[in-house]
Amino acid sequence: MSSNRVPAGSDDDPSVATPQQPSRRRFLQSAAAVAAVGAAPHVQAQTPSAAAPPQARAPEPPRPVTLNVNGRTYSLQLEPRVTLLDALREYAGLMGTKKGCDRGQCGACTVLVEGRRINSCLTLAVMHEGETITTVEGLANNGTLSPIQQAFIEHDAFQCGYCTPGQLCSATALLSEFDSGTASTVTADVRARPPQLSDEEIRERMSGNICRCGAYANIVAAVRSVHGGNPGNA
């Protein structure tokens, strides 16, 4: 009579304990966890720490600045960073000098310092203590317009007028520069000053002053009339 008993010790014997085999998914999960733990210190080291916000620097306190503008002395209290343009307009109350681009590109802020034309938006007021500054308000003499101012009126050398103060100061310096023999980039012979300002010379020497209304032809005519009719007198 056949027996249904399972031989002891065989693989089918339930009394023999078989160790549990790990699954493929669990193995991959464990390997990924180990890799993440190992990489954590490296990632933390590569992460930049949040930079502390820069502390705002306190502005320099105002200091006394004395400016000689149009023959008058102005005693002002200015921060060192105040431009000459802002000092003239906001502190001295001389609103004739205009703020156009505020980057030295349009020439609306042109003034004369020691007779030399500069863009007042590109220089600091504290740099010009003791120097003679002339703005458009100082071009007239005892209520009489200067020749270049009168020529601008006669030749209709302006439209909206915003750039006109800078144009007038620049033209005033232009005439003085030409009479003193200063050459330009279009001067044919820098060793000999031409006897008369040509239109090409005027356009080149006034090229730093932009007129958005386009009154250039009349501006050239005004400058030419002053130099031709009364040389050396701007």
Question: How would you sum up this structure, described in words?
Answer:
There is one protein chain. With 234 residues, the protein is of the alpha+beta class. It folds into 2 domains: 64-137, Roll (Ubiquitin-like (UB roll)), CATH 3.10.20; 139-234, [2Fe-2S]-binding domain (DNA polymerase, domain 1), CATH 1.10.150.120. The chain is built from 6 helices and 5 strands, in the order H-E-E-H-E-E-E-H-H-H-H. The chain has helices spanning 24-46, 84-91, 147-154, 164-179, 199-205, 216-229, and strands spanning 63-69, 72-78, 110-113, 116-119, 132-134. Strands 2-1-5-3-4 form a 5-stranded mixed sheet, sandwiched between helices. A hairpin with a 2-residue loop joins strand 1 (63-69) and strand 2 (72-78). Helix 3 packs across helix 6 (216-229). It is elongated and about 105 Å long. It starts with 23 loop residues before the first helix and ends in a 5-residue tail after the last helix.
Order of the strands making up the biggest sheet: 2-1-5-3-4
Determine Rg (CA atoms, Å). Answer: 41 Å
Give the helix proportion (percent range).
Answer: 25-40%
CATH homologous superfamily designation of the largest domain: [2Fe-2S]-binding domain
Give the helices and strands as they follow along the chain. Answer: HEEHEEEHHHH
Strand content: 5-15%
Short description:
With 234 residues, this protein is of the alpha+beta class. The protein contains six helices and five strands.
